[in-house]
Amino acid sequence: MSDIHLAGISKIYGKNGLRVLPLLAQGMSSREVLAATGCQVGLYDINLHIPAGEVFCMMGLSGSGKSTLVRHINRLIDPSCGSVHVGDLNVTALDAAGLREYRRRRVSMVFQHFGLLPHLTVQQNAEYALRVRGVPPPQQAEQAVYWLGEVGLGGYEQHYPDQLSGGMRQRVGLARALAADTDIVLMDEPFSALDPLIRQKLQQQVLDLQARLNKTIVFITHDIEEAMLMGSRIAMLNAGRLVQVGTPTELRHHPADDYVAEFMQSAR
Ligand SMILES: Nc1ncnc2c1ncn2[C@@H]1O[C@H](COP(=O)(O)OP(=O)(O)OP(=O)(O)O)[C@@H](O)[C@H]1O
Q1: Is 42 in the pocket of ligand 1 (CB under 6 A)?
Q2: Where are the domains of the chain?
Q3: What's the CATH fold of domain 53-78+96-106+182-266?
Q4: Which residue CA neighbors atom 10 of ligand 1 most closely?
Q5: Start and end of every ABC transporter domain (predicted)?
Q6: Predicted model pTM
C-alpha cells in the first residue's frame, strides 16, 4: 500500500508549452494564455497527496483537467513538468520496462466506456491483466471467475461483451481491475454512461468492496452527489487548477471560492 504524491504537475498542450509557465505564474488565466500563445493549459502546478486506502474523488466541470490529472498517475500522460511518486517509486522517471511493470502490478483502470475487448469472452476479459503478467492459466481462470462472482456476474463467463447490458459490461471492467490485484485503481467516470438505478448499485458495490479490500481508488466524476457519496476526500479542479481538497463536509461548510460553493449548493 502506497500513498500517491503529485508534485508541481503542469501539463501544457501546444508548441513549446513550457514557455507559458512564467505567464501562468504571473497570474494569467488559462483562457488568456490560450488567446495569447495558442497553448492549452491542461493542468497548472498541481500538488496533491492521496493517502493509501482512500476513495479519492476528482471533481470539476468538463475540461477542468480531471482525466488529464488521473492519467498522470499511470503515465498514460507525461507531465510538462513536475513528478508523480507512488510510495518510494518515482513514476515520472521510470523507463519503458519499469513503466510496463508498474502498470501490470501497481495500478489498474476502469474506463467510462468499459474498454472491454469485444472478441474476448467475459472471463477472458477479466483474465487479461493476469495473462499479460504471465500468471499461469489455471490461476488466471480461478481469479477471474472469483472476481466475476464477486461483482455478480457468475454464470456469464462465456458470454461476449455485446451480449451484456451496459451495467454488466462495467461489472466486467470492475472484475478485470480487481483481478489485476493492484493496490491502486483509477476510475474515469465509470458509471456516468449507466442508468441511475444501476449506477447506484455499482456505487454501493464499489464502496462495499473498498471496505473489504482497502485499495486506493482515484475516482473521477463530474457529479457532485456521486463525489460526496464515494469520496473520503474530493479534489476540485477548475480550468486546470486545483481549487480545493477536502472532505465533503469541509467543502460544503468552507468552500474555497464561488465555483466550489455553486457545486455544493447544487447537491441535495
Ligand atoms: N491532446 C490534447 N491536446 C490539446 N488539449 C487537450 C488535449 N487533451 C486534453 N486537452 C485539454 O486539456 C483540458 C483538460 O481536459 P480533460 O479531458 O482532462 O478534462 P476533464 O475534466 O476530464 O473533462 P471531461 O469531464 O469532459 O472528460 C481541456 O481544456 C482539454 O481540451
Answers
A1: yes
A2: 53-78+96-106+182-266
A3: Rossmann fold (3.40.50)
A4: 42
A5: 28-264
A6: 0.93
